[in-house]
What does this fold into?
Amino acid sequence: MDDVVERLLRVRRGELPRPAALPAELAPRSEAEAYLVQLQVFKRLGAYVGGWKASMPDPTQGWSAPIASSNLLRAGAPLAAPALLTARTPRVGIEPEIAFTLAHALPAGPVYTRGQVLQAVAGAHAALELCVCRLADFDAAPVLDRLADGLMNEALALSAPCADWRSLELKRLPLRLQVDGEVVHQGLGGHPLQDPIVPLVWMANHLSARGIGLQAGDVVTTGSCAGIRWVLPGRHVHAEFAGLGVVEVRI
It folds into this structure.
């Protein structure tokens, strides 16, 4: 375990090139091992979990990755070298998402209903996930390698919280995404599962089953509403979910 954690840390520091895959003798052999690698990388970096990324190919299965509290960029904060920024990053993926902050904890153990999870939410945010792949080609890499490396998560920029989000039709919110003032995406909704609440509820139960649970103040981001778009450093990215909020970041 220590060897694969050190290998991933050296890639993050720019000491090793991005590999096509982790060496077979080091690669995780199960989801449980991959999740343990995620948390051990954070521990070695001195990072604290402040949120979670949900990645769900369908409503019945998914994967998670932790987000460092130091890499949660609140409204108006520039991206100024968060603690976990990967060295020698040639480009950054941007994903406009809907995220939620918890008002109170959902401890490990129970199976939570949708209603119980919603009662725990303090507010919703427009969000921009910033993605960096520490593997040479994310799509071509083994699934467990991708999971061990945190599913490309690098940072999460958030709008100010919207307390009245329950009055919004989250499945069909108008979304406008701009890069350096140019509109690169505009549409309604766009979440791959149609409903961003589905990944939120899944995350609560996924972490409960893992013995971790969600903590008060944790942020959960629920998946891109416009796919991923790769941009070069120096770009100004602006996303607006009508009625929910505006989030922007200069990379």
